[in-house]
Amino acid sequence: MSEQEKIYPVTAEFAANAWINNEKYQELYAQSVENPEAFWAEQGKRITWFKEYTKVKNTSFDPHNVSIKWYEDGELNAAYNCLDRHLETRGDQTAIIWEGDNPESSKNITYRELYEDVCQFANGLKKLGVHKGDVVTIYMPMIPEAAVAMLACARIGAVHSVVFGGFSPDAIAGRIINSDSKIVITSDEGRRGGKQVPLKENVDEALTNPHVKTVEKVVVVKCTGGDIHWHDHRDLWWHDVVAGCAKECPAEPMNAEDPLFILYTSGSTGAPKGLKHTTGGYMVYASLTHQYIFDYKEGDVYWCTADVGWITGHSYILYGPLANGATTLMFEGVPSYPTHGRMGDICDKHQVNILYTAPTAVRSLMAQGDDVMSSSTRQSLRLLGSVGEPINPEAWEWYHRVIGNGECPIVDTWWQTETGGIMIAPLPGATDLKPGSATRPFFGVQPALFDSEGKELQGATDGNLVLQDSWPSQARSIWGDHERFVQTYFSTYKGVYFTGDGCRRDEDGYYWITGRVDDVINVSGHRMGTAEIESALVAHKAVAEAAVVGYPHDIKGQGIYIYVTLAEGLEASDELRIELVKWVRKEIGPIATPDVIQWAPGLPKTRSGKIMRRILRKIAANECDGLGDTSTLADPGVVDDLIEHRANR
Ligand code: WT7
């Protein structure tokens, strides 16, 4: 039997105790797609509304009129749902367990403490002149203040835009400019793997960009105490901002369709797009999926290893778990520091029950051998999750056998920044698992596979993955560019949402995501546009032309492979290679560090001048025998040179 055919049936424990068993899944799924209106009217009750909704779903995927509204006349506040409503029953329960980069530093924050911190900082933001609807950029390490800042924005109706700490000053500047952000919240430095990350310095540099015109204040958390530059007219310490502020602050009533946050993500073309997520549907969906997919039970300790700079951190470190009154663990560091056993050690230290991480982390631990987890027992774990990229069956098996001691189901969750919450995933009490498959759609999610001509494919087949109807946490638009939203997601196939992913459906109706079908690559679960990296490269004076593709990488899933044609008269050298690697890191950020640079005297182009990426992908993957049709190439000799000098063999 091949690994891919192996089935892990629902365990007896989950079948008996889980929120949803298979019967219930079938019944609720049928309801959710046959009568979404009634289904979501019911599910909406899990959230506390200041004003009840009377309308539930009002959505159109018609490319002439893309419009997505859920619970549109309801009013609520996201922070109220994450904090206030828990105070009476679980004020003294831990809301956030914070585990520092240094294994000796950790702390527990109760719901009441978190409530007070959020209220106090919300008052501080008000004092700085932040109003409902203003955009606040958050560029922070994984410290409790990051969560406090996000919730404080939500409390007063400001829209947060979190920028991952691994992005460069240019990337921060681009996001500030695009969102007209008034305030930036950061820290002096961050800590990761025993090193300091110069966050404030990056913000300072971003703000030297002459196109940044809206930023009035920079609020700085003292985190490491490291040396930083200070600009009196603009910079404020967090502790000074909150000093004297009350620990009570009314939660602003927000319309369900008022924006909660913007989050930037890469696409196949152009600059990163700011996906706009709104309040009501997002909160309903984040909390519902968190409860059912992770089978979250009162008292569980839940740990999602993502960074709050990604959608996973928004929905499944913060909003989903806190809406459910969970104890959510927030980890400042990395899985390899001080040892590769760290994740297991944290599970034991905090008695973690549910662990949600990324395949790249699993593979990097797997590469250390089975003993890597020997410093911990991980006996507290009962469920594992995976997110961000396809998990290869071998890594799945290792995750199950070694990290989970062979006892924990794995929920492989497929979703996107755009979807706001998990779309396709097993329910651990309902779904038999197949390693490598995200299995079946969640309630209300209607996947379909289309061929490149736009025809829907039936039965067991491969195709492009689309979603046929809206769900509550769907992104509503691209910030400031609705037309681009329509173009990107609703114009490839009429009347459906196009995900950009390829997918296989098997005989059992299980979905297997095969990866992006557009020019987006996924490096260690981080999504990057090849066009973005290319435009960074051609901005360097030595580069005449560049083409970027992904190639299979044992640990990262995909690595970044770059073909560079140098400017006339320039010689290739190792120094130049190093300089270009540095250049990309500076332009985009360390997460875009190139893995391979190949000097290319020419790039394969069609006679009309279009770069044939298909060929470049094959060469980068060292699959030179299957180059397919090259008859449309303007100069076939170019390919021979690239094959001869390929870097990955
Ligand atoms: C892309 C979205 C949403 C979580 C973090 C990534 C890929 C995500 C899986 C999975 C196979 C996956 C897809 C998707 N992806 N999860 N379980 N199996 N592929 O969010 O940065 O918006 O990236 O990540 O290609 O389109 P993102």
Describe the structure.
The protein is α/β, with parallel strands linked by helices and about 650 residues long. The chain folds into two domains: about 500 residues, 3-Layer(aba) Sandwich (Rossmann fold); about 120 residues, 2-Layer Sandwich (GMP Synthetase, Chain A, domain 3). The chain contains 20 helices and 31 strands. Strand 16, helix 12 and strand 17 form a beta-alpha-beta unit. Helix 6 packs across helix 7, helix 8 crosses helix 9 and helix 11 packs across helix 12.
CATH class of the largest domain: Alpha Beta
Count of DSSP helices?
20
Q: What portion of residues belong to β-strands?
A: 15-25%
The proportion of residues forming helix, as a percent range, comes to: 25-40%
The overall pLDDT, averaged over residues, is 96
Distance between the termini: 30 Å
Radius of gyration (Å) = 24 Å
Give me the CATH fold name of the largest domain: Rossmann fold
Report the CATH superfamily of the largest domain. ANL, N-terminal domain
Q: Which stretches are poorly predicted, pLDDT < 50 over at least 5 residues?
A: none
CATH architecture of the largest domain: 3-Layer(aba) Sandwich
Keywords: Acetylation, ATP-binding, Ligase, Magnesium, Metal-binding, Nucleotide-binding
Cofactor: Mg(2+)
EC number: 6.2.1.1
InterPro entries: Ac_CoA_lig (IPR011904), ACAS_N (IPR032387), AMP-bd_C (IPR025110), AMP-bd_C_sf (IPR045851), AMP-binding_CS (IPR020845), AMP-dep_synth/lig_dom (IPR000873), ANL_N_sf (IPR042099)
